[in-house]
Design brief:
Largest sheet: 6 strands, parallel
Number of helices: 15
Strand order of the largest sheet: 10-9-8-11-12-13
């Protein structure tokens, strides 16, 4: 994830793991070819390229130059470019931590000396980019077979890693939330909330894994509810109704304020093997505020049955939104906050730090 894109697991962990150790955050090389929707991100990347970025002590952002195309000819060129830029950053004491299965990283690591390789499975990436599925799968298999430690963010991803290599050292360390940040909410009210009526909200990337038929069904059947989507839109065709709003990305500092104004929070992902592999960060952000959450049934959410409303179909999804809106039991809200507190990013970072210490020992 680009450093200045949606604030997610990589940025949270980088900030915490750099407290006592030097941490170099290398901007991603991508898993697919550049397209028109990436132009704005490309310009942001160029801004990073022309300036040194050191957001906090011990934490450095490296934005290497490469050609954003996945064709075979460019891979050879990019491999040379990247080795020239990354090689000075790596020595025999370096821990290389890879968070996505790029073939360019496989090429980059060939011939380099480092202390240990950690591969972190945050998503089922072959399912994210079906056009490059075979190549991504091959790269992912290489990382699982060659990593000293595999960190999986969900049980499904851990099972996948074990199928590829039974003897792999796999640890399940799930996602979390910056709990103290989320409960300290600014008093300002964003202009989008100068609307009347209930709000069903979603925060995150608006991508192909969202069930837009579901959104259309919900908004059609409940015109009295405002459906609010916050985050970058990476897909052209989305439902459009008077009670649906897409307001684009907002500064991370404002996310708790927006979520606090939601009456019910949504995780409207399509039911699929991909969604079953996700341990959604947004879940813990919603729970930190004690908010009711409605989602399709996903493997990673089943352990929260009773705390999160899980639907089997779109009709039940609508029924559960109504149930969530009429919720009055304060003890459930308190339980949600305690779950979020127990999954603070500081606790997640300590788990990873201990795994790294054991690995080096």
């Amino acid at each position: 994830i680009d450093w200045d894109f949606i604030h997610q697991r990589p940025q949270h962990l980088a900030k915490r793991l750099s407290i006592n150790d030097e941490f170099i955050y290398v901007q991603p090389f991508g898993l697919r070819n550049l397209n028109l929707s990436d132009i704005s991100r490309l310009f942001k990347r160029l801004q990073f390229f022309f300036r040194f970025h050191n957001p906090k002590k011990n934490l450095y952002i490296k934005n290497p130059f490469f050609i954003p195309l996945q064709f075979h000819f460019f891979k050879k060129i990019n491999s040379s470019f990247l080795k020239y830029q990354i090689n000075p950053l790596i020595d025999s004491n370096t821990i290389v931590w890879v968070t996505y299965p790029s073939n360019l990283i496989v090429r980059l690591l060939d011939g380099l000396t480092y202390q240990a390789l950690i591969y972190e499975m945050m998503d089922d990436y072959p399912l994210v980019h079906p056009a490059f599925q075979k190549e991504i799968s091959n790269s992912e298999e290489w990382f699982i077979r060659n990593a000293s430690l595999v960190i999986a963010t969900s049980d499904s991803l851990a099972e996948k890693a074990k199928k590829i290599k039974k003897s792999a050292q796999v640890r399940v360390i799930k996602n979390g939330v910056d709990f103290e940040f989320f409960i300290q909410i600014p008093k300002e009210i964003p202009k989008e909330f100068n609307i009347t009526g209930k709000i069903a909200g979603y925060v995150g990337s608006i991508e192909k894994w969202i069930d837009f038929d579901l959104i259309d069904f919900l908004s059609k059947n409940r015109p009295d509810i405002n459906f609010l989507f916050i985050g970058p839109r990476r897909i052209k065709h989305v439902p459009k109704r008077k009670n649906i709003s897409y307001i684009g990305p907002v500064n991370y500092e404002w996310i708790p304020t927006y979520c606090q104004r939601f009456d019910v929070c949504l995780i409207p992902f399509l039911k699929s093997p991909f969604s079953d592999s996700i341990n959604p960060v947004k879940l813990f952000e919603y729970l930190a505020l004690g908010k009711p959450v409605v989602s399709y049934r996903m493997k990673e959410l089943e352990c929260y049955q009773g705390i999160v409303y899980l639907a089997e179909n779109k009709e039940e999804f609508l029924t559960l939104i109504d149930k969530a809106l009429s919720e009055s039991d304060e003890s459930i809200a308190k339980m949600r906050k305690e779950i979020a507190r127990a999954n603070d990013w500081g606790i997640i970072a300590e788990k990873i730090k201990k795994e790294i210490e054991m690995l080096l020992a």
